[in-house]
Design a protein that fits this description.
The chain is mostly beta strands and about 425 residues long. It folds into 2 domains: about 180 residues, Immunoglobulin-like (Sandwich); about 200 residues, Sandwich (Immunoglobulin-like). The chain contains 6 helices and 22 strands. The chain has a 5-stranded mixed sheet, with no helix packed on it.
Length: about 425
C-alpha cells in the first residue's frame, strides 16, 4: 500500500509541475516579424481537414504569385506547391480555408526588399490562396491573420502585414468599408504571404511546422464574444516530409503535437469502441484511445523534466458528446480522471495539453472531447487496468450539473 501512495504522489506532482510550466511561460517569439492585433492564444483542436485523394504537389509548374518576381526583380524558383492542403477553420458560420499554397526561393532580389529578409538579398516566400466565407446572417469582423508555427505555440512567423507581394490580391470585402469587415453571406478569395530568411526556412526542417489560421471572428470591432480557437494544421514543405506527415495523420490532435511540444511514438491504439453512457440529457460515447511514448522536442524539454529521465507515456482518450438537452453545454472545467488498477491511485487529466475547442456544444449538436493523461514510462509499464471517470459537467457559478453525475469506462490496455 505504501508503494501505491508513492506512485500516486509522483503522478500528481509531475502533472501539476507540467501544467505550471505550460501555463506560466510567457516566451517572446523571436520569429514574429510584424506587429499585429493580439487575440487570445487558444488552440483548436480537432480541426476539420477534409479527407481527399492525395493532391498533386510538386516543385514544378507555374508560379502562384507572379508579383514576387515583378516586385523583387529577383530570380524565383518554385520549391514546393500544395494544390489541396484542405485546411478549413470553421468559426460558427465564418469559415476560412486555405485552397493552395506555394513556396518559392528568391535570389538576387532588389535591395529595396532586403529589410524583409534580415538584410539579405535572398530568401523564401510562401504564398497561400485563402477563401473567407461568411455564412452568418450578419457582418463579421476578422483580422485575417495567419502563422507558420515553428518550435512551439509562441515561436512563429506571422503573415506579412506590409503585403509587399500581395497588394491588390489580399482578400477583403467587396461591399463593406470598415476595416477587416465582411458582409453577411459574403465569400471572398485572395492571396496572403509569408517572407522567410534562409535560416528561418531551414529551421522548419528540425521541427514539425504548422500552418495556423488564427481565430478571432467577431460581430463587431469590440471583438466581444469572438471565436477564440485557432485552426492548426501540418505545414508540408517537401515531398519527403509529406510522406512523414501522412504516416502520422492518425495521431489524436492534442497540444503535445499541435503545439510542437513533443513527438509521439505510438504504443497501442484502439478505435471504433463506440461505448455510450448518459449523463442527464448528454450522451457520452467513448470512441477511441491511444497510448504513445512522448519525446519532448529540443525547445520544450525543460517543461517535462519532472517526469524524470526514464521516458513519458501519454494516454489520449477521444469522446463524442451529444447534447440532447435544450441548453448550451459548457465543456469548461471537466475534471476527469483515470483510476489505476482499481485502487492503486488516480491520475487527473492534463487540461493544459488538451485541445481547447470546442469550448461549448449547442443544444441538439455534437462535439468531440479529448482528454490527456500522462505517466512516467517506468511506472506506466507496471499497470494493468485503466478506468476513466468522465465528468461531472460544470454549470453557472461553478456548480455541478445533473447532480454531479459521472460515467466510467474501462479503457482498452
Amino acid at each position: 500500500m505504501g508503494k501505491t501512495k508513492v506512485l500516486s504522489a509522483t503522478f500528481f506532482s509531475a502533472a501539476m509541475l507540467l501544467l505550471a510550466a505550460c501555463g506560466n511561460e510567457e516566451k517572446t517569439s523571436g520569429e514574429e516579424k510584424e506587429p499585429k492585433t493580439k487575440t487570445e492564444e487558444t488552440e483548436t483542436t480537432s480541426e476539420e481537414t477534409e479527407e481527399k485523394e492525395e493532391p498533386a504537389s510538386d516543385s514544378s509548374g507555374e508560379q502562384l504569385n507572379p508579383n514576387i518576381a515583378e516586385e523583387s526583380e529577383g530570380n524565383v524558383e518554385v520549391i514546393y506547391t500544395n494544390k489541396e492542403p484542405n485546411y478549413v477553420h470553421k468559426m460558427d458560420g465564418f469559415n476560412v480555408s486555405v485552397d493552395e499554397y506555394q513556396i518559392v526561393k528568391v535570389t538576387e532580389m532588389n535591395q529595396d526588399h532586403k529589410y524583409s529578409f534580415d538584410d539579405q538579398t535572398e530568401g523564401y516566400v510562401v504564398t497561400a490562396k485563402v477563401t473567407l466565407d461568411n455564412t452568418r446572417d450578419k457582418k463579421v469582423v476578422y483580422n485575417n491573420m495567419y502563422r507558420l508555427q515553428v518550435s512551439s505555440e509562441s515561436d512563429f512567423i506571422s503573415s506579412d502585414m506590409n503585403r509587399a507581394f500581395v497588394k491588390e490580391e489580399f482578400p477583403k470585402s467587396k461591399t463593406e468599408t470598415e476595416v477587416n469587415t465582411f458582409a453577411a453571406g459574403e465569400k471572398v478569395s485572395g492571396l496572403i504571404s509569408f517572407t522567410l530568411t534562409n535560416a528561418e526556412f531551414d529551421s522548419l526542417k528540425s521541427v514539425k511546422p504548422k500552418f495556423v489560421i488564427e481565430g478571432g471572428a467577431a460581430d463587431d470591432l469590440s471583438m466581444k464574444g469572438m471565436f477564440q480557437g485557432h485552426g492548426v494544421y501540418d505545414f508540408v514543405y517537401s515531398g519527403e516530409q509529406k510522406e512523414q506527415v501522412a504516416s502520422e495523420a492518425s495521431i489524436y490532435p492534442d497540444k503535445l503535437t499541435t503545439d510542437n511540444l513533443a513527438d509521439k511514438k505510438m504504443i497501442f491504439e484502439k478505435s471504433g469502441i463506440n461505448e455510450t453512457q448518459q449523463i442527464g440529457d448528454i450522451n457520452v460515447t467513448l470512441e477511441g484511445v491511444q497510448y504513445a511514448e512522448v519525446i519532448p522536442t529540443e525547445a520544450n524539454k525543460e517543461r517535462f523534466k519532472n517526469f524524470g529521465d526514464t521516458g513519458i507515456v501519454a494516454l489520449t482518450v477521444k469522446l463524442k458528446l451529444d447534447n440532447q438537452s435544450s441548453d448550451l453545454l459548457d465543456l469548461w472545467g471537466i475534471n476527469s480522471k483515470v483510476a489505476i488498477d482499481k485502487d492503486r491511485g488516480n491520475v487527473l487529466s492534463q487540461s493544459m495539453v488538451e485541445p481547447r475547442e470546442p469550448q461549448e456544444i449547442k443544444a441538439g449538436e455534437q462535439g468531440e472531447k479529448y482528454h490527456v493523461f500522462m505517466f512516467r514510462k517506468d511506472e506506466f509499464e507496471l499497470y494493468k487496468q485503466f478506468d476513466l471517470t468522465f465528468g461531472p459537467f460544470i454549470g453557472d457559478e461553478g456548480k455541478d450539473l445533473y447532480k454531479g453525475k459521472t460515467v466510467t469506462f474501462t479503457l482498452p490496455r
